[in-house]
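User: Please work through this fold.
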Amino acid sequence: MRKVLAAIGGCLHASVPAVALAQEGQIDVADSGDTAWILISSALVLMMIMPGLSLFYGGLVRAKNFLSVLVQVGAVAAVASLLWIVVGYTLAFGTVTNGWLGAGNAWMLIDLGNVREGLLVPESTFALFQMTFAAITPALMVGAWVDRARFGWVVGFCALWSLVVYAPVAHWVWGGGW
């Protein structure tokens, strides 16, 4: 009889923490410290693109091509940022539908939530942070064809690459796809 009572008591004792830990869902509120850190990090990445990469790649070429490299890096970063705002964010971080791409629920960053699920930063801040990496990735490729490609081809290729390669891979890795 003691063994039976001990077993019942052990089961009751083991089930008590589950009741104590059952709580209402928390309401996500943006944390000002996290938001400030994400914004500072975004500014640092943007500074790494324009003066950093531009001057680095400009130093690798002859003096006559210096301005061309500055314009290429700036244009590629601008086009990638614009594409990210228009369609890239929703393709990478939209609602997961089929695993390949996000749903089109945030075209032009229109239907963003207050706080990104699972984080303590506003979704608009998260979109800005991710945009900086969407912009620096094709800007890094400019160094591969410095002095070798025309301006229009560079910008066109980087725009296409941002939509066809970067957005789906970002969805697969960070956006909950696959």
Notes: The domain at 28-173 is CATH 1.10.3430.10 (Ammonium transporter fold). Helices lie at 2-21, 32-59, 66-93, 123-141, 151-173. The longest helix spans residues 32-59. DSSP finds five helices and no strands in the chain.
